[in-house]
Amino acid sequence: MLRAALFAVLASLVLPAHAQSLELEECRISAGPGYPGIKARCGTVLRPQNPGDPASPDITLRVAVVPALNLNPATDPVVPLAGGPGQGAVQFYSAYAAAFEPMRRNRDILLVDQRGTGESSRMDCPIEDDILEGEYSVEETVRYTNDCLDQLPHDPAWFTTSVAVNDLEAVRVSLGYSALNLYGVSYGTRVAQHFARRYPDSTRSVVLDGVVPPQLALGPEIATESQKAVDNILARCAADAACNERFPGVRESFSSLVEELRAEPRQLSVPNPSTGRPENLSFGANEFAGAIRLLAYSPRSIALVPLLVHEAANGNLVPLASQYLMTAVALADSLSLGMHNSIMCNEDVPFYDKATIDYEGIEASYMGALQVEALEAICSVWPEGPVDAEFKVPLATDLPVLLLSGDADPITPPRYAELAMVDLDNARHIIGRHQGHGQIGVGCTRRIVADFIDTADLDGMEADCLERSFVMPFFLDFSGPGP
Question: Please, are residues 135 and 368 in contact by the beta-carbon 8 Å criterion?
């Protein structure tokens, strides 16, 4: 069913072919409708869909520069690289702009929506309701995937990381920047590592936040790592006097809910998060898993988990179902599904080692095997794209690299950062206590990262403040935490 191993990318991808001058104009960027605008300078650049083919049609990349506060900024900007895979850099930065302000004192913020995301020849197709609502079968998923492929505006084979880093280097050349300070979060850490591998002379420093190690294929451990994170959340509640008193037996309630919803989904009327109108929803184990998985990403939403589980176990499933609908709407709005599939189906699924996959643990987890089975079904028909020969090898470099993890991260635990560090000669790993996925918005992290980027030096870095970062107490009711 799955394709074999990777193949080498065309030699012409090594250099930024067709680099061109890039004119920027005043603009405003934002995280989406209803969010405040941010002053920037924006432009577009044409790039060949297939950089190895002179006759290849062009695609359009969206570029934005948020100017430094210093009137004489350094010539090496900060480059945020978004996660997903499938989120655009402009949207991601705009949502977390405050966290990047200390970095903007002396450097521009350079934003490039990766090809296939945001406004860079977005590769997307609508997600059908039956897929969202868990009416899953291999046959239906393959049919939907073929329909999706028919709707895409470009050949999805050319939307892999190996091609995208070539685009970023072309933008750097076009704008005349001397080198880049890369900040990647989640999937963006994969992009940052591969750019630094391909273009070491164009890289000044690297920050990896929620690290995806190159040698790891994402997917098989998502369910088991998320189960570990949820187990830890519920154990913390049980060890907290107020939480345990308010939600006795919450771990048992969680397990019972999973079994009950697998046996029989509940039919609910839930307000649509966009319109407020009541919407009929079949809420089963898959919807439950979709809500819980994203709640486990951040300490602020982790604080709600015991309360929502307790309410659901006592018959009130609407708050958790509302969370599921909000998650589904947010993912559909922010992630480009076609680009996401091009990444997963070329860089992850073909590298699954079935002999080492913990199928028993996956089946036993609250997420079950749906996610892995759906990915394999999608990738059975998704086109093959270029992946560089060294792509799955750990980055070996003496460039300064700062790695950030949260010890409660449900998808990229600290041990992933340790895997990525195996051949890094100038690296430091900082772990946030009780923190989730992505540290840039946590406590003093923005200052740590800004100081690192200013100096490109890991020696003498003061990071103890991260251990003291605020962690949201558990909500004891919908009014918030106890006094």
Answer: no
